[in-house]
Design a protein that fits this description.
With 333 residues, the chain is α/β, with parallel strands linked by helices. The chain contains 12 helices and 10 strands. The structure holds zinc ion.
Length: 333
């Protein structure tokens, strides 16, 4: 999936369903920059991901979001075997000419806090990007936050007032009791200065986790959400209708998880990333429409959720830009 194609159905959905809805100014709070050269030569993960630097990202955004103005919160790709240091430095150099974009430093439990501190000071990282893939327990599905982001690292983030973009692990994501207890303890007792951005609607790809957890999440201070990759209307609607919309940020997860024709499909409480099925690529089915990019599915879900929740235009503008402007202290340009 290292090529992104834009098809006629994408163009029609943009023009007829999205063009009038998407604001001019956009801050994308979930973007990965990556190059395969960060992996060892024969690593099997090579060619799994789109090589994405600033130029490629901007070029694609021009096609997917014609006429829009973008800034970003960027991090590298949290892959085992990858050269984390090189990926972090790549993000730094790529964003040198984007004063209103921000970056998180990839961290693994092996990263020394003094190195993180030095990088934050030297390169102006605003936060950290840990990932469950690096869990010290070896269980990437059922690990707790502390298993892939160490307490000394959280202490540093707390001292420096850093952001942490958090992809929650554990089967039930934000509805998991242990995750909720940890978040409540960290935000109200141990690390009150950390600003958490819970990726993928607090990792709620179906109706269920947010429906279960939203009444507790909305009480937790210092958390925000990015809406990246979630193409389920009910998850987006629960967030928009039950949370303070000022805590919600637009994010895409391009080009890691959202630049393919397909979507994140909810099947009950199960969900999975599903690309275009083979049979749908043939023309003998009952429509001449083709599947659209997952990023457009996400935007359609958000649009429909916003309609259901009766969001006003200025609230939609807040999600796409103004909330990030305030949070990251962006300058008017
Ligand atoms: Zn991501």
């Amino acid at each position: 999936m290292n090529q992104v194609f834009y098809n006629e159905s994408d163009r029609i959905v943009w023009e007829e369903d999205l063009e009038d809805f998407i604001p001019y100014k956009i801050f994308d709070a979930h973007v990965h920059f990556w190059d395969d050269s960060f992996l060892p030569l024969k690593d099997p993960q090579r060619n799994n991901f789109v090589n994405s630097d600033l130029q490629i990202t901007e070029r694609w955004n021009k096609q997917m979001f014609p006429g829009r103005d973008f800034d970003y919160l960027v991090f590298g790709m949290p892959l085992a075997n990858a050269d984390i240091k090189a990926n972090n430095e790549f993000v730094v150099s790529e964003l040198a000419g984007k004063p209103n974009s921000r970056k998180n430093r990839l961290v693994t439990p092996e990263c020394k806090t003094e190195d993180i501190y030095n990088d934050v000071v030297k390169y102006n990282f605003v936060g950290m990007k840990p990932y469950r893939q690096f869990s010290t327990t070896g269980d990437i599905n059922q690990c707790r936050i502390q298993d892939f982001l160490t307490h000394p690292q959280m202490e540093l983030a707390n001292e420096m007032g850093l952001f942490i973009t958090l992809h929650l692990s554990r089967y039930h994501g934000c509805a998991d009791e242990q995750n909720l207890i940890d978040l409540e303890e960290y935000t109200t007792k141990k690390y009150p200065n950390i600003k958490w951005i819970l990726a993928h609607c607090a990792r709620s790809f179906t109706y269920w986790p947010l429906q279960k957890a939203i009444n507790r999440l909305r009480q937790i201070p210092n958390i925000w959400y990015d809406i990246s990759a979630v193409s389920d209307v009910m998850a987006q609607y629960t967030l928009l209708s039950k949370e303070d919309h000022r805590r919600i940020l637009y994010g895409s997860d391009n080009f890691t998880a959202n630049a393919f024709h397909g979507r994140y499909v909810a099947m009950g409480r199960f969900w999975y990333q599903i690309g275009t099925p083979e049979y749908a690529k043939k023309n003998n089915i009952h429509t001449n429409s083709k599947p659209i990019l997952a990023i457009y599915e996400q935007l359609l879900a958000f649009k429909h959720a916003a309609q259901l929740a009766q969001l006003r235009t200025e609230q939609i503008n807040d999600v796409f830009y103004n909330n990030a402007k305030k949070l990251f202290d962006l300058k008017s340009m």
